[in-house]
Amino acid sequence: MTHSQTGFRSAVTHFIRNQKILVPPQYSRFYRDYRGREFAFLDVGCGNHSASTAKRWFPQCRYHGIDRTMYNNDETDLASMEEMYEIDLEKESLDPIRDGFYDLVLVNHVIEHLPNGLAVLEALTAKLRPGGRMYIEYPAARSLALPSLSGTLNFCDDDTHVRVYDLKDVANALLTNEMRVLRGGIRRSWLRVALIPVTLPLALVKGNPAVPLWDLLRFAEFIYAEKRSSI
User: Fold this and answer.
1) C-alpha–C-alpha distance, residues 223 and 137, integer Å
2) From the centroid of its chain, how far is CA 45?
3) For residue 174, what pLDDT is reported?
Protein backbone atom coordinates (compact mmCIF):
# COMPACT_ATOMS: atom_id res chain seq x y z
CA MET A 1 0.00 0.00 0.00
CA THR A 2 1.45 3.36 -1.03
CA HIS A 3 1.69 6.40 1.20
CA SER A 4 -0.95 8.21 -0.90
CA GLN A 5 -3.36 5.26 -0.64
CA THR A 6 -2.87 5.11 3.12
CA GLY A 7 -3.46 8.86 3.39
CA PHE A 8 -6.62 8.67 1.27
CA ARG A 9 -8.11 5.84 3.34
CA SER A 10 -7.19 7.63 6.56
CA ALA A 11 -8.90 10.80 5.31
CA VAL A 12 -12.04 8.84 4.34
CA THR A 13 -12.16 7.15 7.74
CA HIS A 14 -11.68 10.50 9.51
CA PHE A 15 -14.47 12.08 7.44
CA ILE A 16 -16.87 9.21 8.18
CA ARG A 17 -16.23 9.44 11.92
CA ASN A 18 -16.45 13.23 12.12
CA GLN A 19 -19.66 13.39 10.12
CA LYS A 20 -21.17 10.57 12.17
CA ILE A 21 -22.05 8.81 8.93
CA LEU A 22 -21.09 5.43 10.31
CA VAL A 23 -22.19 4.98 13.91
CA PRO A 24 -20.47 1.95 15.50
CA PRO A 25 -22.76 -1.02 14.84
CA GLN A 26 -23.29 -1.73 18.53
CA TYR A 27 -24.82 1.75 18.88
CA SER A 28 -26.68 2.07 15.58
CA ARG A 29 -30.08 0.84 16.82
CA PHE A 30 -30.26 3.29 19.72
CA TYR A 31 -28.01 6.18 18.70
CA ARG A 32 -30.90 8.45 17.72
CA ASP A 33 -32.77 7.59 20.92
CA TYR A 34 -29.93 8.66 23.22
CA ARG A 35 -27.66 11.11 21.37
CA GLY A 36 -27.36 14.46 23.10
CA ARG A 37 -29.04 13.10 26.24
CA GLU A 38 -27.84 12.51 29.77
CA PHE A 39 -28.57 8.91 30.69
CA ALA A 40 -27.31 6.03 32.82
CA PHE A 41 -25.50 3.51 30.61
CA LEU A 42 -24.46 0.01 31.72
CA ASP A 43 -21.99 -1.61 29.30
CA VAL A 44 -21.66 -5.36 29.86
CA GLY A 45 -18.22 -6.34 28.59
CA CYS A 46 -16.40 -3.02 28.81
CA GLY A 47 -12.93 -4.00 27.60
CA ASN A 48 -11.18 -2.89 24.41
CA HIS A 49 -11.62 0.85 25.05
CA SER A 50 -15.41 0.59 25.19
CA ALA A 51 -15.70 3.40 27.74
CA SER A 52 -13.86 6.02 25.69
CA THR A 53 -15.74 4.94 22.56
CA ALA A 54 -19.08 5.33 24.36
CA LYS A 55 -18.16 8.80 25.63
CA ARG A 56 -17.14 9.85 22.13
CA TRP A 57 -20.61 9.09 20.78
CA PHE A 58 -22.60 9.80 23.96
CA PRO A 59 -20.57 12.44 25.81
CA GLN A 60 -23.31 13.11 28.37
CA CYS A 61 -23.86 9.49 29.41
CA ARG A 62 -23.07 8.28 32.92
CA TYR A 63 -21.00 5.27 31.97
CA HIS A 64 -20.84 2.15 34.15
CA GLY A 65 -19.06 -1.01 32.99
CA ILE A 66 -19.01 -4.70 33.85
CA ASP A 67 -16.20 -7.08 32.97
CA ARG A 68 -14.36 -10.02 34.48
CA THR A 69 -11.07 -8.09 34.41
CA MET A 70 -9.84 -4.68 33.33
CA TYR A 71 -9.10 -5.85 29.78
CA ASN A 72 -7.30 -3.64 27.23
CA ASN A 73 -8.31 -0.30 28.75
CA ASP A 74 -6.11 2.73 29.34
CA GLU A 75 -6.24 5.86 31.49
CA THR A 76 -8.67 7.54 29.10
CA ASP A 77 -11.08 4.64 29.50
CA LEU A 78 -10.77 4.64 33.27
CA ALA A 79 -11.42 8.40 33.35
CA SER A 80 -14.55 7.82 31.23
CA MET A 81 -16.06 5.36 33.75
CA GLU A 82 -18.11 6.46 36.73
CA GLU A 83 -18.28 2.86 37.95
CA MET A 84 -16.46 -0.33 37.01
CA TYR A 85 -17.77 -3.66 38.33
CA GLU A 86 -15.34 -6.57 38.13
CA ILE A 87 -17.77 -9.49 37.98
CA ASP A 88 -17.33 -12.97 36.51
CA LEU A 89 -20.75 -13.38 34.90
CA GLU A 90 -20.38 -17.15 34.77
CA LYS A 91 -19.79 -17.49 38.52
CA GLU A 92 -20.91 -14.33 40.32
CA SER A 93 -24.22 -12.52 40.74
CA LEU A 94 -25.16 -9.01 39.67
CA ASP A 95 -26.29 -8.10 43.19
CA PRO A 96 -23.68 -5.30 43.59
CA ILE A 97 -25.36 -3.39 40.74
CA ARG A 98 -28.39 -1.24 41.48
CA ASP A 99 -31.81 -2.45 40.35
CA GLY A 100 -34.09 -0.16 38.37
CA PHE A 101 -31.34 2.40 37.72
CA TYR A 102 -30.21 2.25 34.08
CA ASP A 103 -31.70 3.86 31.00
CA LEU A 104 -29.68 1.65 28.66
CA VAL A 105 -27.92 -1.71 29.00
CA LEU A 106 -25.60 -2.87 26.22
CA VAL A 107 -24.67 -6.56 25.88
CA ASN A 108 -22.52 -6.62 22.76
CA HIS A 109 -20.94 -9.97 21.86
CA VAL A 110 -20.87 -11.24 25.42
CA ILE A 111 -23.41 -14.05 25.82
CA GLU A 112 -21.68 -16.35 23.31
CA HIS A 113 -18.79 -16.49 25.81
CA LEU A 114 -21.12 -17.69 28.58
CA PRO A 115 -22.88 -21.03 29.13
CA ASN A 116 -25.45 -19.15 31.25
CA GLY A 117 -26.04 -16.22 28.92
CA LEU A 118 -29.85 -16.35 29.12
CA ALA A 119 -29.76 -16.28 32.92
CA VAL A 120 -27.43 -13.26 32.77
CA LEU A 121 -29.84 -11.44 30.44
CA GLU A 122 -32.73 -12.19 32.79
CA ALA A 123 -30.75 -10.78 35.72
CA LEU A 124 -29.85 -7.67 33.72
CA THR A 125 -33.50 -6.83 33.05
CA ALA A 126 -33.83 -5.99 36.76
CA LYS A 127 -31.18 -3.29 36.39
CA LEU A 128 -33.29 -1.27 33.93
CA ARG A 129 -35.71 1.41 35.02
CA PRO A 130 -39.24 1.24 33.52
CA GLY A 131 -38.92 2.44 29.94
CA GLY A 132 -35.19 1.65 29.91
CA ARG A 133 -33.80 -0.28 26.97
CA MET A 134 -31.42 -3.15 26.31
CA TYR A 135 -29.46 -3.93 23.15
CA ILE A 136 -28.06 -7.45 22.72
CA GLU A 137 -25.89 -8.71 19.86
CA TYR A 138 -24.29 -12.13 19.35
CA PRO A 139 -23.16 -14.47 16.53
CA ALA A 140 -26.07 -16.07 14.68
CA ALA A 141 -26.32 -19.85 14.24
CA ARG A 142 -25.60 -19.31 10.52
CA SER A 143 -22.06 -18.21 11.50
CA LEU A 144 -21.28 -21.91 12.00
CA ALA A 145 -21.48 -22.30 8.20
CA LEU A 146 -19.27 -19.34 7.31
CA PRO A 147 -15.63 -19.77 6.28
CA SER A 148 -12.89 -19.35 8.84
CA LEU A 149 -11.12 -15.97 8.80
CA SER A 150 -8.86 -13.97 11.07
CA GLY A 151 -10.92 -11.77 13.37
CA THR A 152 -13.76 -14.36 13.67
CA LEU A 153 -16.07 -15.05 10.78
CA ASN A 154 -16.97 -18.61 11.70
CA PHE A 155 -18.37 -19.01 15.22
CA CYS A 156 -15.59 -21.46 16.12
CA ASP A 157 -12.79 -19.11 15.02
CA ASP A 158 -12.88 -17.79 18.59
CA ASP A 159 -12.00 -20.51 21.09
CA THR A 160 -13.69 -18.54 23.88
CA HIS A 161 -17.11 -18.94 22.23
CA VAL A 162 -18.93 -21.61 24.22
CA ARG A 163 -22.60 -21.49 23.18
CA VAL A 164 -24.68 -20.62 20.11
CA TYR A 165 -27.79 -18.62 21.01
CA ASP A 166 -31.03 -18.45 19.07
CA LEU A 167 -33.08 -15.30 18.46
CA LYS A 168 -36.26 -16.93 19.75
CA ASP A 169 -34.65 -18.06 23.01
CA VAL A 170 -33.08 -14.66 23.66
CA ALA A 171 -36.41 -12.95 22.96
CA ASN A 172 -38.28 -15.29 25.31
CA ALA A 173 -35.76 -14.65 28.11
CA LEU A 174 -36.64 -10.96 27.82
CA LEU A 175 -40.38 -11.34 27.26
CA THR A 176 -40.76 -13.36 30.47
CA ASN A 177 -38.99 -10.61 32.42
CA GLU A 178 -41.17 -7.57 31.80
CA MET A 179 -39.55 -6.61 28.50
CA ARG A 180 -41.08 -5.97 25.10
CA VAL A 181 -39.04 -6.46 21.95
CA LEU A 182 -38.83 -3.34 19.79
CA ARG A 183 -36.79 -4.90 17.01
CA GLY A 184 -34.82 -8.06 16.37
CA GLY A 185 -33.22 -10.03 13.57
CA ILE A 186 -30.09 -9.96 11.43
CA ARG A 187 -27.65 -7.17 12.21
CA ARG A 188 -27.06 -5.62 8.83
CA SER A 189 -26.35 -2.14 7.52
CA TRP A 190 -26.30 -1.69 3.76
CA LEU A 191 -24.15 1.41 4.30
CA ARG A 192 -21.48 -0.71 5.97
CA VAL A 193 -21.78 -3.22 3.13
CA ALA A 194 -21.26 -0.42 0.60
CA LEU A 195 -18.18 0.78 2.50
CA ILE A 196 -16.44 -2.62 2.41
CA PRO A 197 -14.00 -1.43 -0.33
CA VAL A 198 -12.75 1.12 2.23
CA THR A 199 -13.09 -0.78 5.50
CA LEU A 200 -11.78 -4.17 4.36
CA PRO A 201 -8.31 -2.95 3.25
CA LEU A 202 -7.95 -1.08 6.55
CA ALA A 203 -8.94 -4.22 8.45
CA LEU A 204 -6.47 -6.32 6.44
CA VAL A 205 -3.66 -3.99 7.48
CA LYS A 206 -4.69 -4.51 11.12
CA GLY A 207 -4.91 -8.29 10.64
CA ASN A 208 -8.65 -8.33 11.35
CA PRO A 209 -10.43 -8.74 7.99
CA ALA A 210 -13.53 -10.60 9.24
CA VAL A 211 -15.46 -7.80 10.95
CA PRO A 212 -16.11 -5.67 7.82
CA LEU A 213 -17.76 -8.76 6.29
CA TRP A 214 -20.18 -9.37 9.16
CA ASP A 215 -22.99 -7.30 7.64
CA LEU A 216 -22.56 -8.76 4.17
CA LEU A 217 -22.54 -12.37 5.39
CA ARG A 218 -25.16 -11.95 8.16
CA PHE A 219 -22.79 -13.02 10.93
CA ALA A 220 -24.71 -11.54 13.87
CA GLU A 221 -28.22 -11.24 15.28
CA PHE A 222 -29.56 -8.53 17.60
CA ILE A 223 -32.49 -7.72 19.84
CA TYR A 224 -33.45 -4.23 20.99
CA ALA A 225 -35.98 -4.31 23.83
CA GLU A 226 -37.67 -2.03 26.35
CA LYS A 227 -38.59 -2.51 30.01
CA ARG A 228 -42.35 -2.34 30.46
CA SER A 229 -43.67 0.45 32.65
CA SER A 230 -45.30 -0.57 35.89
CA ILE A 231 -49.07 -0.72 35.71
Assistant:
1) 7
2) 8
3) 98
User: Which segments in the chain show pLDDT lower than 50?
Assistant: 13, 16-19
Which among 70, 72, 107, 102 is positioned nearest to 85, based on CA atoms? Answer: 70
Global pTM value: 0.89
| pLDDT at residue 87, rounded to an integer | 96
Secondary structure of residue 15 in the 3-state scheme: helix
Backbone angles phi and psi of 160, in degrees to 5: -90, -5
Answer for the pair 209, 171: CB distance below 8 angstroms, yes or no. no
pLDDT digit string, tens, across residues 41-65: 999 999 888 999 999 999 999 999 9
Residues in CB range of 91: below 8 A, 6 or more apart: none
DSSP string covering 59-83: TT-EEEEEESS--S--HHHHHH-SE
Domain borders along the chain are 24-190+217-227
DSSP line for 166-207: -HHHHHHHHHTTTEEEEEEEE---HHHHHTHHHHHHHHHHTT
Three-state DSSP class for residue 92: coil
Pick the CATH number of 24-190+217-227 from 1.20.1630.10, 3.30.420.60, 3.10.310.10, 3.40.50.150: 3.40.50.150
